[in-house]
Specification:
The protein is α+β, with helices and mostly antiparallel strands. The chain folds into four domains: 17-199, tricorn interacting facor f3 domain (Immunoglobulin-like, Sandwich), CATH 2.60.40.1730; 201-301, Neutral Protease Domain 2 (Neutral Protease, domain 2, Orthogonal Bundle), CATH 1.10.390.10; 311-450, Orthogonal Bundle (Neutral Protease, domain 2); 484-651, Leucine-rich Repeat Variant (Alpha Horseshoe). Helix content is 42%, strand content 21%. Helix 7 (336-355) crosses helix 8, helix 16 (502-511) packs parallel to helix 18 (532-545) and helix 23 (622-632) crosses helix 24 (637-651). Residues 11-17 have low confidence and may be disordered.
């Protein structure tokens, strides 16, 4: 049954899909490109070496909206057919090795390569995003992830900028005002993982226990954020190598923060790009640390980059595995209670999805991220519980060894587990892989058995046992139970809770319905907590409940920016504009600052928050609406969707 259902899903995923792999095998690529940020242009050439496996009358490369200047096949110019999507070379090719194909091209990419800054005050950067956007938008390549190629990159870029790419830096040089950076790779990967980033970066180097160089990039202006951002990076790397049981497969590992990035992170081979929203200071570490994304993208270097799905049917082999191993890394760093609580909260989200009628199978290529990531992680968690640690870890190691630098389907993994476990997993597959529903009862039962901490949390229900909650609140050592009670019964908040952890104090700040005069100093102390979310909530509550001291609180918090979305600063601006008698001469300046945060130089999260406040104040006027129109065209889908919705509201 497993083979049949996988085949059905595979047929659905393959509609309109074109492959040449059975006939031609591309082995190696030498890429030479020049990046011109002023013109937002890339041009150059790529030399492919390929083998012909079966006689063929043509070969092709994917190349989107380019000018193809010339094509050479085996060192001879050849005619080609190109109409904006695929470059097709008609030629009778016999089975033999070491054919050569050179393509010279020029393009101004509309996606997959992004130029930020250069003409405004945003950081000057160029960066690529191949997955979902197609590397073939800036480099003639192969969109089919089943073609694995060893890429070497030579990149010309404006001097005084760092260029980071896949592989090991080997040499460089200068030509006038341009600088050449050459990177070499030893092993093959799918084309969507080819990546480069250009920016004004500094770099620090650390090494794993196994000797792998880990290059950590940052902007000089963010030097104070370096340690909190990259905290636990070495520990995560060493843990994953040990837990997975197979050495890190690439020459080195790099991490690069990207302005205006499309996602939280992207696992380009040996070079993770991540949103600079995660460049954080010591306080923000508690609110929005990079730890999970750090571990998730690193896990992809094995699951996704080294061993790659054949199609979207098997996407959970990337995201489910990376999510699971990121959770294991967090368990290693923060303990069992943290690990099991995250699994519990994940289970609730999956249950909510099912109740809304949106649950899907892990093998449905149209499933959403919640399914691929979190249901996938749960599936591995339950599989390990079923077969045991030894069988699970042995299966992972054998699976990776058997399919390294190859493409896989779900059957390849499950067959390996069945073989090593010497057991039939059909029932497990039916429940966890093939069913649209998440087995919430089975999941909760497992958590209750494994974690007394989670069991205590689940069994605490203030709606049923309201009289006991005050007693539990004072007696329990479980912070999550305390937070749950405070959230459900805010009238139970009392002065003793201010002596608790910052997490409990945050729950107090978020859920307080009033502030008594004799508790004023306790609430004021929240303005100094190691959490910008707490400080934001405390400022708002103090401003609301103690109006006579509004100017005192505004003066005390005027220099706090907060998280990357400016949560504290933007709230401060709104409150300052609405506080009678506070710096009246600066009201226009406060409005101008809030409006400026909606401009294109800022990250989407900050812009969205600023737009929301201006809309709430009914002050999204001409310039604000003009910035919304620009945001509507932005490549970041969250920002563009938000802008479209806000513009529609303004027209109503």
């Amino acid at each position: 049954m497993r083979k049949t259902i996988s085949l059905i899903f595979g047929i659905l995923a393959a509609v309109g899909f074109s492959q040449q792999q059975p006939y031609v095998d591309f082995i190696q690529a030498e890429v030479k490109v020049t990046i011109n940020p002023d013109k937002q242009e890339v041009f150059g050439s790529v030399d492919y070496r390929f083998d012909v496996l079966k006689s063929s009358d043509s070969i092709f490369l994917d190349a989107r909206n380019m000018t193809i200047e010339e094509v050479f096949l085996n060192n001879k110019p050849v005619d080609f057919n190109y109409q904006g999507r695929q470059l097709i070379i008609k030629n009778n090719l016999r089975p033999e090795s070491n054919h050569k194909l050179r393509v010279s091209f020029r393009t101004k990419p509309s996606k997959a390569m992004y130029f930020r800054g250069w003409n405004n005050e945003a950081p000057d950067e160029v960066w690529t995003q191949g997955q979902g956007k197609y590397t073939s938008s800036w480099l003639p390549s192969l969109d089919d992830m089943n073609d694995k190629i060893e890429f070497d990159l030579s990149i010309m870029a404006p001097k005084d900028y760092a260029v980071v790419a896949n592989g090991k830096y080997v040499e460089g040089g200068y030509i006038d005002d341009m600088q050449r950076w050459e990177y070499n790779m030893d092993l093959p990967m799918s084309s969507y993982l080819v990546a480069l980033a250009i920016g004004r970066y500094d770099k620090r180097m650390i090494y794993s226990n196994s000797g792998i160089p880990i290059e950590l990039y940052y902007r000089s202006s963010d030097s104070i954020k370096f340690e909190p951002t990259y905290r636990y990076t070495k520990e995560i790397f060493d843990f994953l190598e040990n837990e997975i049981g197979l050495a890190y497969p690439w020459q080195n590992y790099k991490q690069i923060p990207i302005h205006d990035f499309l996602y939280a992170g992207m696992e380009n081979t040996g070079a993770t790009f991540f949103s600079d929203d995660f460049m954080i200071d010591e306080i923000a570490f508690n609110d929005n640390s990079y730890v999970n994304v750090n571990a998730h993208e690193l896990a992809h270097q094995w699951f996704g980059n080294m061993v790659t799905e054949t199609s979207g049917v098997h996407h959970w082999l990337h995201e489910g595995f990376a999510s699971y191993y990121a959770l294991l890394a967090e368990q290693h760093l923060f303990g069992d209670s943290h690990f099991y609580m995250k699994l519990y909260k994940s289970a609730l989200k999956l249950e909510e999805q099912d109740l809304a009628g949106n649950g899907t199978s892990l093998l449905n290529p149209k499933s959403n991220s919640l399914t691929f990531y979190e249901k996938g992680a749960w599936t591995l968690f339950m599989l390990r519980e079923l077969v045991g640690d030894h069988v699970f870890k042995s299966s992972i190691k054998e699976y990776l060894n058997a399919y390294k630098f190859k493409n896989v389907e779900t059957d390849d993994f499950m067959d390996m587990v069945e073989k090593i476990a010497d057991t039939d997993l059909t029932a497990f597959e039916k429940q966890w892989l093939l069913s649209d529903d998440f087995p919430i009862e089975r999941a909760i039962d497992a958590l209750n058995q494994m974690s007394p901490y989670v069991q205590g949390y689940i069994n605490t229900n203030c709606e049923v046992e309201q009289s006991k909650c005050a007693e539990i609140l004072s007696d329990t050592f479980n912070d999550d139970i305390k937070i749950k009670i405070i959230t459900e019964q805010p009238d139970l908040i009392n002065p003793d809770l201010f002596d608790e952890s910052w997490k409990v104090r945050q729950a107090v700040a978020l859920n307080s319905k009033s502030i008594a005069d004799n508790d004023r100093e306790l609430y004021e102390s929240l303005l100094d907590d190691p959490s910008y979310i707490t400080r934001e909530a405390a400022l708002y509550k103090l401003w609301t409940f103690l109006p006579d001291k509004r100017m005192v609180y505004l003066e005390r918090t005027k220099d706090i920016f907060g998280l990357s979305d400016g949560n504290v600063r933007l709230l401060w601006l709104v409150l300052a504009m609405n506080t009678s008698g506070f710096d009246q001469d600066s009201i226009k300046q406060f409005y101008s600052e809030l409006l400026e945060y909606t401009t294109d130089i800022h990250n989407p999260s900050l812009r969205i928050r600023a737009f929301n406040y201006l809309a709430m104040l009914d002050m999204c006027l001409d310039e604000c609406q003009s910035n919304l129109e620009l945001a509507k065209q932005h490549y970041n889908w969250q920002l563009s969707k938000f802008a479209r919705q806000e513009l529609a509201k303004l027209k109503d």
